[in-house]
């Protein structure tokens, strides 16, 4: 069985939510999943490029600490913060939920829409789709007006809002598949009932990312060191500690 770390950037999850997510994660995949949080100071949620950049240093330090304990790492934020540096830093596979989900959406539909949390995160979402080479298949990015720290996974109102926004994306933008652009929305685990009501694929980033991590780990797949070359660890002592090049 593969051991997968779900690495949460920042400091936003309390003990109860970490336990809940770990339970759900282990129900979603055959891997043994452990929720790991950064030990460094960082944002309580990631809703801007500034907060995204802030969390990456802590994620790199934590990922390097646990690199020998796990077979793969999933970044616990849909913004995929630090995906490239983490892949350069580690030999084990590192999975970004957005990258995995967007490419899945492009396989199940010609055009897809992204339901992001806030109006302010729409530009970041569009830029991400462009970076992953799929902006031409992106029908739209729409906000469901749900700040991360206010998301209640038991809220029927949030489900109704996601259905309403999703239906507009289908009817007005031509979307043929949908996904939530936030791991807190994903871990609400309401995607089945939303899919029934919008009648197009409504993808679950948590399932997709965890299953990809498990598959890569089981089959010995990892990022190419030609694409993600190893850094000079002697220069990283202040970041990773003196054992970074032992």
A few lines on this structure:
Helix content is 44%, strand content 13%. The protein is of the alpha/beta class.
Task: Tag the structure with descriptive keywords.
44% helix; four-stranded parallel beta sheet; three-stranded parallel beta sheet
Q: How is this structure best described in words?
A:
By secondary structure, this protein is of the alpha/beta class. It folds into two domains: 3-96 and 208-245, Rossmann fold (3-Layer(aba) Sandwich); 98-204, Rossmann fold. Helices cover 44% and strands 13% of the residues. It has helices at residues 15-28, 49-65, 83-89, 97-108, 122-131, 156-173, 183-186, 191-198, 205-218, 237-240; strands at 3-8, 32-37, 72-75, 94-95, 112-116, 138-143, 177-180. It has a four-stranded parallel β-sheet with strand order 2-1-3-4, sandwiched between helices. Helix 3 (83-89) links the parallel strand 3 (72-75) and strand 4 (94-95). The mean pLDDT is 94.
Radius of gyration: 18 Å
Structural class: alpha/beta
Q: Identify low-pLDDT runs.
A: none
The total number of structural domains is 2
The major pleated sheet works out as:
4 strands, parallel
Helix content: 40-55%
Q: How many beta-strand runs?
A: 7
Number of helices: 10
Q: What is the name of the CATH class of the largest domain?
A: Alpha Beta
How are the secondary structure elements laid out?
Elements: E1 3-8, H1 15-28, E2 32-37, H2 49-65, E3 72-75, H3 83-89, E4 94-95, H4 97-108, E5 112-116, H5 122-131, E6 138-143, H6 156-173, E7 177-180, H7 183-186, H8 191-198, H9 205-218, H10 237-240
Parallel strand pairs: 1-2, 1-3, 3-4, 5-6, 5-7
Helix pairs in contact: 4-9, 6-8
